[in-house]
Amino acid sequence: MDSEHRHELKENDLAEFLTNFGQWWSNYGMMLSVVVLAAVAIIVGKTVMDANAAAKKEQAWADLAGSTSPESYSLVAQLHTDPAVRALGNLRAADLVTTGPTLPQTDNTQTDQPDAAIEFTEKQAADMYKQVIDDEAAHTVYKLNARLGLAAIAENSSDWDQAKNQYQQTIDQAGTAYAALATHARKRLELLDKLTLPVVFAPEAPKPRIEDQPLPTAAPPMPGVSDFGDTQDTDQP
């Protein structure tokens, strides 16, 4: 087969391919274009959504790190949907109300408003602890800490039965996976029996009466000293 004949065969094959491709494209080209565009749109959309989710998560943790008061922590828990940030926001807000005042303000943050720790009550703190416990997405560690917080509030109000209940549930749910929290709850549970006992003070010692106290006596005069303070001359007759 000479080169000219081979060249003609190649041209015929190319022409046949182009003819068949044109026919195929006219039948399926539009469908293929739609599928390709849809795939590209899905990939681009997922990339954008992942980037937005990462930015929101980073912002949520930044807001949590910048909070210093029960009010700001509670606001973070309400604004963000990240389970960990939401749980930690409620926990830290309630802990500040339960365990003590907020961090001291600097000269740049002082306001005429009352401290947020005073504005929040222990009832509100208990509600925030319960939100963590009822949140199915919250980690077990956060739920256990919330129960310890409820137990502390119960102790503050002398509700010993409620405190025992929360400590016992903490021990049962912690098991061996969270031994440190279980040990803490067990020690507090052992102390409750002592805390329920009334404090007995020693009787106050009676104060001595004035009439029972001895009267002060004058000091005896020094020998050789007259009433006017002059030394007596014992050598004169």
What report would you give on this structure?
The chain is rod-shaped. Helix 7 packs antiparallel against helix 8. The protein is built from 8 helices and no strands. It has 237 residues and is an all-alpha fold. Among the domains are: 46 residues; 118 residues. The longest helix is centred in the N-terminal third of the chain and has 63 residues.
Radius of gyration: 43 Å
**Terminal residue distance:** 179 Å
Q: Number of DSSP helices?
A: 8
Low-confidence stretches: 101-118
What's the mean pLDDT score?
78
- Relative strand content: under 5%
Strands, total number? 0
Largest sheet: none
Could you give the order of the helices and strands? HHHHHHHH
Structural features:
mainly alpha
Please specify the SSE layout and strand pairing:
Layout: H1 3-65, H2 70-79, H3 83-99, H4 116-119, H5 122-134, H6 140-156, H7 160-174, H8 179-195
Short description:
With about 240 residues, the chain is an all-alpha fold. It has helices spanning about 5-65, 70-80, 85-100, 115-120, 120-135, 140-155, 160-175, 180-195.
